[in-house]
Amino acid sequence: MRMTQLTAAKKILIYGYGIEGKSTAAFLKSKDVNYFEIHDDNIKEYSSKKELDEYDVIIVSAGINREKVFPENLWSKCTSNTELFFHNLSPINRRKTIGITGTKGKSTTAKFIYELLQNCEKKVEVAGNYGKGLLDVLDQMDDLEFLVIELSSYQLAYLNRSVHLALCTNLFEDHVDWHGGIDPYHKAKANMWAHQTPSDFLFIPYRYCSNPFFETPGEKITSGSLYHQFFPDETCIWHAPHYLQNLGLAHQLYRHLDLGEIAFKKTCMEFEPLPHRMSFVRELNGVTFYDNAIGCNPHATIADIGFFKEKLGCLILGGVDRGNNFASVFEAIHKHHSPAYIIIQRSDASDKIKSILKENYPRIQFTVASTLEEAVNVGYEKTLKNKVCLLSPACASFDRYKNYEDKGDAFVKYVNSL
User: Fold this and answer.
1) Which residues of the chain are modeled with pLDDT < 50?
2) Has this prediction a pTM greater than 0.85?
3) What structural domains does the chain harbor?
């Protein structure tokens, strides 16, 4: 939706007033569009029921599935912070966009590329799912050399524009409840590059060369893993194949931009991963605790199991069941000969996980813990010396927590109180 259409609207509704909603409200005010209203079920002052038919435009926050919330006759009135940004971006400024998506690793990759371009002394911002709201930076685009954009499948679901330089870290099963299946989820991700032009570029791992979801009008560039020698020995990146694969894409992008090697090496040596992403918490009496609260689907947890292998002594699971295949987690434990003791935090998914273990994996020992604090205490008790106790829930966290950060903070607190 172009600004001319937006300013012509008589009644505008911002539906959802989180980070994106507030970004949208600030943008509208900056354009002297002050006749909007706000609705958010989670904020009392904005939760009164609205007669949706009265509005000319409904600006929907990304996490809200408009096809499930609104009747079909209103879908054409809906847009989003992301769509407004791309629909009002000039062709010249679109060529400054670097987009990152994927099931896992997109925020870390976006952070790395942003810091890399800063080290190259480029005028760069980071926005989208990580960083600022996209509409917060629309009016800055003329002054920027690059904009790094992380986009989730929710933000991409209805988008019919694509970035100039697109990177996809990986594609696994996730958010199948929101999208209605794995194919619609992957199709949403593909909007990052499906609408590119022949002068645009898509960067993907080698293993996706023949995957039909990666068809693009632009040029396709593949990459392998980054050499771990780029990083200091004490960082977890050195030992984590998934980090090295994702940052291999960043290296290929850097080579494409022809910016030399000095800034890349500097960024690698100074880079700090984001919290709650395979973060070391504490070592206590031979038990090492790691926090990967962002591991919100089985594929993330499987990657963690493959990372620690036989060093994994205890695994804490549980949260919101989004229709994922938990059996694959226990297959990975068998594959890597991990002696992991399973702790299931009582949750929406706990009965399903317990049933799978009882029926198919009777040799894997487990406990159901009522709270995360209890899970930490059991983990400390059950984890053998010189082994790892890991939080990687394979589920979303919003049954008991605001988000994965909130759950990770709680885990760190309970571990440090042991």
Assistant:
1) none
2) no
3) 3-79 (3.40.50.720), 90-270 (3.40.1190.10), 279-416 (3.90.190.20)
